[in-house]
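Sample entry (163 residues):
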Amino acid sequence: MIEKIAFGGGCHWCTEAVFQSLIGVEIVEQGFVASTGANDTFSEAVVVHFDKEKISLRELLTIHLHTHASTSEHRMRVKYRSAVYAFSAAQIDQVNSELAVLRKDFEKKLVIKVLPFRAFRPSEEQFRIYYYNDPEKPFCKTYIQPKLDRIAGKFPDKLKNRS
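Predicted structure, serialized as tokens:
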């Protein structure tokens, strides 16, 4: 069964490539997500459509936490909100439950927010599939490839074969 959830953390080019590289992730929509209340502005994020029979929500959360600055409250957090955007109250509960367990893997406090999904605005076409369209770009080699290398080192069984 295909489910969806949205993630924000760093630039959406990086986040998109991370999730596109994973077994069980069927679609990654790159763009901007807004929530409600104090988080109602759009922030860079991706909507991930995944097959929960092939990759679990916990695995997605774990990889997300390890591929962005999930313990750093830096000056760019408005643009790069560290967040999980849930599509239902039940999904919010599930994410909070999983994060309660995953927090133990980090020495510093996680800054990630669990928020209700409100709206999505896609990136311009020319910026989508950014990494896989040209992995030799300097930005890709400097910022995205190290994240993919981290996944290969920590979660090698979750990577799609892209050869």
